[in-house]
Amino acid sequence: MAHWQDYTLGRPAHTVAGTLLIREHVYSPQLHNRRSLLVWLPGSYARQPQRRYPVIYMQDGQNLFDAFTSFAGEWQVDETMIRLEDEGLEAIIVGIPNNDRRIFEYSPYPDHRLQVKEGQGEAYLTWLTQTVKPLIDHDFRTLPDRAHTGIAGSSMGGLISLYGFLRYGHCFGLAGVFSPAYWFGNRAIFQTVEQAAVPAGRLYLDIGSEEGDVSRRRKPDAPNYYLLAVRQLSEALIRKGCTPGDTLFYVEDQGGQHNEDAWARRLPQALRFLLREPLRDGQPA
């Protein structure tokens, strides 16, 4: 644990609540770069040294806990988790900050319109599952099995999270997919859904009714293609075997926009669904 430091040390200005640790300069042999990792610990972590916890790996880590490092407001993951502790829901949250290669690392497909000739999504997920997860499981008291391991993100982070859930089901049994960039790679995620055997687990999927749709900005009464496409994605997942309300929780947020404020507002219901069985001493209650 020597490499992990209190995130708030040397930061007179921050909005972090609870215990947030940081480990800097973590190397990725798959991506050939380095970045910091953030780990938020439940309030009971220090008080119950024998207890183990579920883990959720979240993309765009700098937007999760601290408004001073966020791009456009924070998700308030720390404050949300503290409130959920009163409901018996606890988990370790790992925040993985993005970098200037974000669109490539979160890309499981090429997209010629955006000049992404070859996405690095597979390399990113290999790093996450073969480097980051073993590191977290070694340094913290986790429940390492897939049933207690989740992946989550929004927009492109939502796309790579859904792809990771479908293609890396041996690691991830939980997924939080917020406003996924379904359009990337000419809607290739739909083909992935059709080809994948949807693993057992829980999948949260959402979309806001006011997400950035160019056609509707030009003509307000035009169809909301973003909402309609994510709705179609939920229907495709149901056809593959996901059960609404049981293994799939799909939400259309009236008035929701494509930003951190909307995702922060929807985060509590997503985490309640993903972590809905309280854990005691590492076992279902």
What report would you give on this structure?
The chain has 285 residues and is an alpha/beta fold. It has a single domain (5-284), classed as Alpha/Beta hydrolase fold, catalytic domain (Rossmann fold), CATH 3.40.50. It is 32% helix and 21% strand. The strands form 2 sheets. The chain has a 9-stranded mixed sheet with strand order 1-2-3-5-4-6-7-8-9, sandwiched between helices. A two-stranded antiparallel sheet has the order 10-11. A hairpin with a 4-residue loop joins strand 2 and strand 3. The radius of gyration is 18 Å and the shape is globular. The model is unreliable at 278-285 (pLDDT under 50).
- CATH top level label: Alpha Beta
Q: Within the CATH hierarchy, at the fold level, what is the topology?
A: Rossmann fold
The major pleated sheet works out as: 9 strands, mixed
Q: How far is the N terminus from the C terminus?
A: 29 Å
* CATH architecture label name: 3-Layer(aba) Sandwich
Radius of gyration computed on alpha carbons: 18 Å
Strand order of the largest sheet: 1-2-3-5-4-6-7-8-9
Mean of pLDDT = 92
* Total of DSSP H or I helical runs spanning 4+ residues: 8
Portion of residues within helices: 25-40%
Number of strands: 11
Percent of sequence in beta strands: 15-25%
